[in-house]
Design goal:
Layout (H helix, E strand, L loop, with lengths): L3 E8 L8 E2 L1 E6 L2 E7 H7 L4 E12 L1 E6 L18 H13 L5 H17 L2 E8 L8 H12 L2 E6 L7 H18 L6 E3 L1 E2 L8 H14 L3 E5 L4 H10 L3 H8 L6 E5 L5 H10 L2 E4 L1 H6 L7 H7 L2 E4 L8 H15 L8 H8 L1 H6 L16 E5 L11 H8 L5 E6 L2 E5 L2 E2 L4 H15 L6
Parallel strand pairs: 1-5, 6-7, 7-8, 8-9, 10-11, 11-12, 12-13, 13-14
Antiparallel strand pairs: 1-2, 1-3, 3-4, 5-15, 15-16, 16-17, 17-18
């Protein structure tokens, strides 16, 4: 890749640090090599290609720390009766009407649409969690083929569960192990990790097996944790302790654990998460959708936990997700000082990368990958280093993004994806959603 200078009006190198005015970056070979004032870069590298980004903010790309690409297929599905709680949501809707019906063509169409929408939303890296028990084996390869065309960094996993059978759960773990092993050696931006569902659909033996495999593969283990009150109540009945306490008793609570949701945590569990180094992915909007509650994110952050931000495959406009994190906790805890905009931007960038144990992304500094976005800075009111983060979160949306780059490769520029025809992608998604809904024969 040829050297290039990106010269914006404002540069965010590492949130929540104040942005620098009239600073930019030099990129060569997919890596940021220099960060300096724009004039210095012009003088030092007169022959480099330039993007003169006047009136724009250059920021690290977003890291979506938790999504379900297949989830888009369920949006708007006809329902005779809405679920009246978290357990009915899973038992009566999500499992039988969505996950158990998924097949490879559905997954391929959903991945193409979601990748296109994440790129347009400034997401340069993401973690996807797939549960499609009757699409085994080979479903992760189907998704990876699509993701690699779009050029984003991605961690893909299959959510093993014993709710179907122990044999099906073993197939899920094998899918993760095979995929993770292969991706560690092929040089792809797409990688794998280990995953199981929850403490109420997986036995202690399966959980230990997942962590043992992850130890051999040197990767993370993802799980959903306490998304609503159901799991804590189950764990207390079954094990005499809450979910994080249960995982700690198994000896698996630690930096290898990536726990998503973490809504219904006790004070002791908050302390355990921070003390053991458990990584957390926070989904403020989907937690509202399933009626799970509002996660104690301010307390987790204060305790020192690593927290990233995710869409959960629900609302994929990442600016909306950030607005949710920015506003919901203030209202819930009656404190407008909570979750300042710079901290939320950090969760959406470096925090997500740290949650995924992803090195070299989430900041714009020498030696780090050129994972970035350019965002229009024509805000309603004057911009200054003291208000850039607030202005971005409150007044920007995907349509204000001019450029998205991953590892130095341009993925989106001036309203156009560099790969794929969006009309064709949309048409395929609509067809596969109709199949899932039973309106077209499978």
């Amino acid at each position: 890749m040829a050297e290039i200078l990106i010269l914006p009006e404002w540069l965010i190198t590492r949130a929540p640090d104040p942005p620098a005015r009239a600073w930019g970056v030099r990129i060569d070979g997919g890596t940021v090599t220099h960060v300096a004032p724009n004039d210095e870069l012009r003088q030092q590298f007169p022959n480099a290609a330039r993007i003169e980004a006047r009136g724009q903010v250059l920021s690290p790309g977003f890291v979506n720390a938790h999504t379900h690409m297949y989830g888009v297929l369920a949006h708007g599905i006809p329902l005779a009766k809405a679920p009246d709680g978290f357990w009915p949501f899973l038992r009566d809707f999500w499992w039988p009407m969505v996950e158990d019906r998924l097949d490879h063509p559905m997954l391929r169409a959903a991945a193409a649409w979601q990748c296109s929408q994440m790129v347009k939303s400034g997401v340069t890296a993401f973690y996807d969690c797939l549960e499609a028990p009757h699409a085994l084996p080979g479903c992760l390869e189907v998704e990876a083929e699509v993701v690699e065309k779009y050029g984003q960094h991605a961690f893909l996993s299959f959510e093993a569960t014993e709710r179907v059978s122990r044999e099906n759960a073993d197939l899920g773990l094998q899918e993760n192990a095979r995929f993770t092993r292969e991706k560690k050696t092929d040089g792809s931006l797409v990688q794998g990790l280990m995953c199981f569902h929850t403490s109420f659909t997986c036995s202690p033996a399966l959980i230990r097996q997942a962590f043992n495999l992850a130890g051999d593969l040197d990767c993370l283990v993802h799980l959903h944790c306490s998304e609503g009150t159901f799991e804590p109540e189950y764990a207390i009945r079954q094990y005499g302790m809450r979910p994080i306490e249960f995982y700690d008793s198994l000896g698996v609570a630690g930096p290898r654990m990536l726990a998503s949701q973490c809504v219904q945590l006790s004070e002791h569990e908050i302390d355990l998460v921070a003390r053991c180094g458990v990584r957390v992915a926070h989904m403020p909007l989907s937690n509202c959708e399933v009626g799970g509650g509002i996660a104690p994110i301010p307390q987790l952050l204060k305790a020192g936990a690593v927290v990233g931000l995710g869409s959960d495959g629900y609302i994929d406009n990442f600016f909306e997700v950030m607005r949710g994190a920015f506003l919901i906790h203030k209202a819930n805890q009656l404190d407008p000082r909570l979750m300042p905009a710079g901290l939320v931007w950090q969760m959406a960038t470096l925090g997500g990368a740290q949650a995924l144990a992803m090195k070299g992304s989430g900041c714009l500094q020498p030696g780090w990958q050129a994972d970035l976005q350019l965002i229009d800075a024509a805000f309603p009111t004057p911009a200054g280093e003291w208000n850039i983060y607030d202005q971005l979160i409150l007044y920007r949306n995907p349509e204000h993004i001019h450029l998205v780059m991953s590892a130095g490769r341009v993925l989106y520029q001036d309203g156009q994806l560099t790969w794929g025809n969006e009309e064709d992608i949309h048409r395929a998604l609509q067809y596969q959603a109709s199949r899932l809904w039973g309106q077209i024969p499978v």
